[in-house]
Amino acid sequence: MTYKRGTNPRSLANLRPSWLPGESGNAGGHRSPLITPAMRRYAAWTATELVELAADESRASKLPMADVIAITMLLKAARDLAGGDRAREFVTERLDGPLSRAEVDVAVGVQVIVREVHGSGTRELG
Question: Where are the domains of the chain?
Fold first, then answer.
């Protein structure tokens, strides 16, 4: 079998979508978050209730994996003193969203220069 460079029929077949023309490549629609809703649901529970659920293997084994991950992260954030800072930050961002950040540079005893930025140009004020 001979073919020109870049026209191997097997390589071209791999590039074709698996759906037919006119069909959506994402027939199920937009994928929604899995962990965050579960985490919000369990965040309303007391720590004792979460520990009891995690310790009860018969109940915990029937939970969806998203619930298991949510419970694990909540318990790690609450209990782990050494490595829990990152877990607490993760849980907080999941539940409340990311924090807004502002940067301020202050230099004492130095002239203050204020710059106004417009599109592609910058001008100094004062």
Answer: 33-96
